[in-house]
């Protein structure tokens, strides 16, 4: 995992509007648990919650604190499914996996309801919008495949898109009423409180620097000399994965997702812009996504550079997208600009690894981590409690990407090519 000193703090609208998180100790001394979890994001926290509720002793260790990474900096869009259509998922994994994937948003809202998490949950649906006529047939196929599986979905024409978004330029899209939104940092802190209440222990300022076999289990060493022994270990570090396990970091591309939030909209604007509080992402290869955020602010996000942004000029593409879809937003100041790292995989799928007995890893949510990580963490916890409970995705081998150290160069070139293809399509 990266050291806390190397993770650059970027102020976000979430941090500015979040309730105080749980008061947690920094790790010190020697500890033991049935299961050790490295990383206190959505995956780690939901795994801990499931395990603790099942009677296991659990310790979660995070380099900084719960929700500090992408789990507390993302767009808060709760989107079911994956990038692949249901028929394709059936062929790849079977209908059980497709059903799991389709139910991931349900898991988030059930956790919020069950544990009374105060995170502004709104189930206003997720809209996949298109500015390209060429994309509409594929969107209709995707919608129809989910509808055939019982999902509450519908196509939207240009007029419906204008009414539902208040934006310009959309030629159509589809809405999935299973989706919605949360305040992601408050959601992460709420999961931490729920895990603590169930009996888990969580440590902050706990940078894991070694993971070795010991006494039939595993020993974890921390940068300050603290130690932790456990029979099982779950590594849940996603876009902030470091060199703790050989080759794991090189299986994903840690891409910056950058976002902006305007000053609060007035009452008239809030009545016209996303009136049902749906969340939206567009269908281009390099997509933008937007929603109404805390205090009635209009938020826009998208793919950033592979270096951390240093100033407002690094957000010029997102600013332009915001003003393109919502010309009236030009008169609104941008109050917040921030970034977080998402983990992208070559096959656009999350990966579950078990490279050694007693070690489980999950990462690579490709921008859909709120719902998928929450559901997958619970499934991992259930599997570790009872191995007869199957994991929802097939295990994969750790396969580092060739010349991974050059990923900022080749991934940037790939993104540039995708932008050109997006531009050329009608």
UniProtKB/TrEMBL annotation:
Single GO term (MF): oxidoreductase activity
Domain FAD dependent oxidoreductase: 34-379
Matching Pfam families: DAO (PF01266)
Keyword Zinc-finger: no
Keywords linked to the UniProt accession: Oxidoreductase
InterPro entries per the UniProt record, alphabetical: FAD-dep_OxRdtase, FAD/NAD-bd_sf
Domain of life from the UniProt record: Bacteria
EC number(s) from the headed UniProt entry: 1.-.-.-
PANTHER family: FAD DEPENDENT OXIDOREDUCTASE DOMAIN-CONTAINING PROTEIN, SARCOSINE DEHYDROGENASE-RELATED
Protein name: FAD-binding oxidoreductase
Provenance organism: Tistrella arctica
Lineage, highest ranks first: Bacteria, Pseudomonadati, Pseudomonadota, Alphaproteobacteria, Geminicoccales
């Amino acid at each position: 995992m990266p050291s806390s000193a190397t993770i650059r703090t970027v102020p976000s609208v979430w941090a500015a509007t979040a309730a105080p998180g749980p008061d947690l100790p920094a790790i010190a001394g020697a500890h033991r648990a049935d299961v050790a979890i490295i990383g206190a994001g959505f995956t780690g926290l939901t795994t801990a919650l499931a395990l603790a509720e099942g009677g296991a002793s659990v310790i979660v260790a995070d380099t900084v604190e719960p929700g500090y990474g992408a789990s507390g900096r993302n767009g808060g869009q709760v989107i079911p499914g994956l990038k692949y259509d249901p028929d394709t998922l059936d062929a790849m994994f079977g209908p059980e996996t497709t059903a799991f994937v389709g139910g991931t948003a349900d898991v988030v809202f059930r956790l919020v309801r069950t544990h009374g998490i105060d995170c502004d949950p709104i189930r206003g649906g997720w809209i996949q919008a298109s500015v390209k006529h060429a994309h509409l047939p594929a969107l209709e196929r995707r919608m129809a495949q989910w509808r055939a599986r019982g999902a509450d979905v519908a196509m939207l024409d240009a007029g419906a898109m204008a009414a539902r978004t208040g934006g310009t330029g959309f030629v159509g899209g589809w809405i999935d009423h299973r989706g919605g939104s949360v305040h992601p940092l408050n959601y992460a802190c709420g999961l931490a409180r729920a895990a603590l209440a169930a009996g888990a222990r969580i440590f902050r300022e706990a940078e894991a620097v070694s993971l070795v076999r010991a006494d039939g289990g595993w020993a974890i060493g921390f940068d300050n000399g603290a130690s932790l022994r456990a029979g099982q270990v779950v590594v849940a570090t996603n876009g902030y994965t470091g060199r703790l396990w050989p080759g794991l970091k090189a299986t994903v591309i840690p891409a910056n997702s950058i976002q902006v939030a305007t000053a609060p909209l007035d009452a008239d604007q809030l009545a016209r812009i996303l009136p049902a509080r749906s969340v939206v992402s567009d269908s281009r290869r390099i997509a933008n996504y937007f929603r109404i955020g805390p205090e009635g602010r209009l938020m826009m996000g998208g793919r950033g550079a592979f270096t951390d942004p240093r100033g407002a000029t690094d957000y010029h593409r997102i600013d332009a997208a915001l003003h393109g879809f919502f010309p009236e937003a030009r008169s609104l100041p941008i109050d917040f600009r921030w970034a977080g790292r998402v983990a992208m995989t070559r096959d656009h799928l999350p990966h579950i690894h078990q490279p050694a007995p007693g070690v489980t890893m999950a990462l690579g949510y490709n921008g859909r981590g709120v719902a998928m990580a929450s559901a997958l963490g619970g499934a991992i916890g259930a599997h570790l409690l009872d191995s007869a409970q199957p994991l929802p995705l097939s295990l994969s081998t750790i396969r580092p990407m060739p010349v991974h150290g050059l990923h900022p160069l080749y991934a940037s070139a790939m993104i540039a090519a995708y932008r050109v293809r997006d531009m050329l399509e009608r």
